[in-house]
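User: Can you fold this complex?
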Amino acid sequence: MHTMTDPEDNWLWIIGPGAIGRLLAASLMAARQRELREQGASALPRVLLLGRQAMAGQAVMLDMTTPESLIVSSRINHSTIDTLQDSSFRKPSAIWLTTKAHGVPAVWQQLAPHITPETPVTCWQNGLSAQPWLAERHANLLCASTTEGAWLPAETGASTTPDNGSTADDLQHLGVQHAGRGHTWLGAWQSGGDGDHDSQSNQAALMQGDWLKAAGFACEQTPDIQTRLWHKLAINAAINPLVARYRIRNGQLRDRPFAPMVRQAVEEISAVLDSEGIPAPEEGWQALVEQVIRATANNRASMLQDVLAGRPTEVEAILGPLRSTAARHGLALPLLDDLYRQLSTPQR
Ligand SMILES: NC(=O)C1=CN([C@@H]2O[C@H](COP(=O)(O)OP(=O)(O)OC[C@H]3O[C@@H](n4cnc5c(N)ncnc54)[C@H](OP(=O)(O)O)[C@@H]3O)[C@@H](O)[C@H]2O)C=CC1
Ligand SMILES: CC(C)(CO)C(=O)C(=O)O
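Assistant: Here's the predicted assembly.
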């Protein structure tokens, strides 16, 4: 274990209590409780979940349903991001940002005054917009790229009882469905240079990788997280805009008229990545995308879910970096540009 600080004073702030934020919080807290029970001590951090919606008390019960349909419940400290000026908060050892990509600038505006430049901040977003944006503002930046799958069930049972001495039944319950296990890559945004923040970020990545492994996630550190983020972006760019535009499940992309569109999208994407010197996967882009479509055939992809719920999508975070890179290299993206335009106007 790469221990950094007294575990009792070791707080991880997870900002964005949605599907991924809750999955991470619930898994870490369950692991911490297990270690405390079995060994009397744990190097895992305590979790403070920070959202923008007020809850009934200062703690919530997080009920995570595992892929095997077990329910794991943990009591988690909760607060709203606009109460950060309250000096009673313990300063965090690390911060994980788990909002959607377009949520990061608003979070940062509220967060920045309350943390030091040394605090490691990890971006969990898909796409490649939040990470470079934050890298210009905070040097000690880490990124995670994950294929874990999680979604939020409809909320149940809110309590209005204050939580001093409260029991599990008094607390507001938040649920999360861990839909499928995946793989997480973790690394410093800037790696391989000789700056102080560089080595701090690498140390933080090693420690946070230990936390994730202890919490049951398959996780590896990488010295080149930017390539991993491009690879995830490529898969998301080949699948998400098409399924969101045509409102279909991923598996339908194997049928006409969509299969030729996927091939064209992958050709456009791989030309951009080649021009940028991003290495292709061993099996090639077409085979990798086909494999992900097969493995997620029954999914309603995240961008489709956002469109159906009338929420903003991550189209800018996913297609934006491809479009700007293509423009820099003089490449045309007829299909992706068209999808971008259609998905950038409000969907009904
Ligand atoms: N879900 C998944 O399986 C996976 C998700 N990802 C990526 O992880 C990121 C998060 O996705 P996901 O968890 O699904 O998204 P969700 O929409 O479920 O969660 C986002 C959370 O962020 C909160 N939030 C938004 N703005 C703020 C703010 N200013 N301050 C505090 N909290 C805020 C939202 O709160 P509110 O309810 O108030 O809007 C919501 O709880 C995305 O980039 C996604 O692409 C990556 C891999 C898998
Ligand atoms: C890989 C894919 C497209 C699976 O649905 C995904 O990551 C998403 O839904 O955002």
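Residues 15-21, 50-53, 81, 98-101, 103, 106-107, 124-126, 146, 148-150, 152, 302, 314 surround NDP (ligand 1) (CB under 6 Å). The radius of gyration is 20 Å.
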